[in-house]
Write a structure and sequence with these properties.
Layout: H1 3-15, H2 20-36, H3 40-59, H4 68-81, H5 87-110, E1 118-122, H6 123-146, H7 155-180, E2 184-189, H8 190-213, H9 216-221
Antiparallel strand pairs: 1-2
Helix pairs in contact: 1-3, 2-3, 2-4, 5-8, 6-7
């Protein structure tokens, strides 16, 4: 079995043995770490260590953290040790999402309504995708570097950032379509386009999890 899934499953089962308060503290720390780094394996390893600490603390009648400042100090120290989001990691996450939902699922939903629709791959669309990917990467990096703890207190700020990002991208896409939309490279029927994107997204996702499972840190731990 993939080492990543083995560790994640073990962590999930062991976390259920903790007290309700310790489980909540563990969830808050995990959610925060998932926002400040995309080192998925590193997060699971930290989570495993925290569960060990919490089990011992619960046995002594204590919780994982005595107060919120203890958790905040811990995540700040861990944040400095975990690597930031890289381009390769970003693409391994963004491509499946874009293919599955942005093209695949959307295409399957559109097909019964407009079966004759053809997806137009134009120069404007390609430039927009590149701009969207680059801006999303740097936006995520900026947000992750500035995120506070616990993350639920900063939820409104993220929603505002995301809304502004979508509006700006929409306007950029509209401008690019008017300027470069006439340069068309291919017009693909919607059904094969949707199915092809679902397959592509699945392949990239499988490679991503295979890559996670080969992490030497997991092999040493398991």
């Amino acid at each position: 079995m993939n080492n990543y899934f083995t560790l994640r499953k073990a962590n999930r089962l062991r976390a259920r043995l903790l007290s309700a308060t310790s489980q909540q503290q563990l969830r808050e720390v995990t959610r925060y770490l998932r926002r400040v780094t995309w080192d998925i394996n590193g997060i699971e390893l930290v989570r495993c260590d925290l569960i060990d600490i919490a089990v011992q603390a619960n046995a002594e009648g204590n919780e994982l953290f005595h107060k919120i400042t203890d958790a905040e100090t811990f995540v700040r120290s861990i944040k400095a040790e975990l690597p930031p989001l890289s381009w390769l990691e970003f693409l391994s996450i963004a491509i499946p999402l874009f293919c599955f939902f942005g093209c695949g699922v959307e295409g399957l939903l559109l097909y019964p309504v407009v079966p004759e629709f053809r997806f137009t791959m134009s120069l404007g669309w390609m430039v927009q995708v590149c701009i969207s990917a680059a801006s999303a990467y740097y936006l995520l990096r900026r947000m992750m570097e500035r995120v506070g703890f616990p993350p639920k207190k900063h939820r409104v700020k993220y929603v505002v950032y995301l809304a502004l990002y979508i509006v700006v991208l929409y306007k950029i896409g509209e401008l690019l379509y008017n300027m470069l939309g006439g340069v068309v490279f291919a017009a693909i029927p919607i059904l094969p386009f949707a199915i092809g994107n679902l397959i592509l997204g699945g392949i990239v996702l499988a490679i991503r999890f295979y890559w996670y499972g080969k992490d030497e840190r997991l092999t040493a731990r398991l």
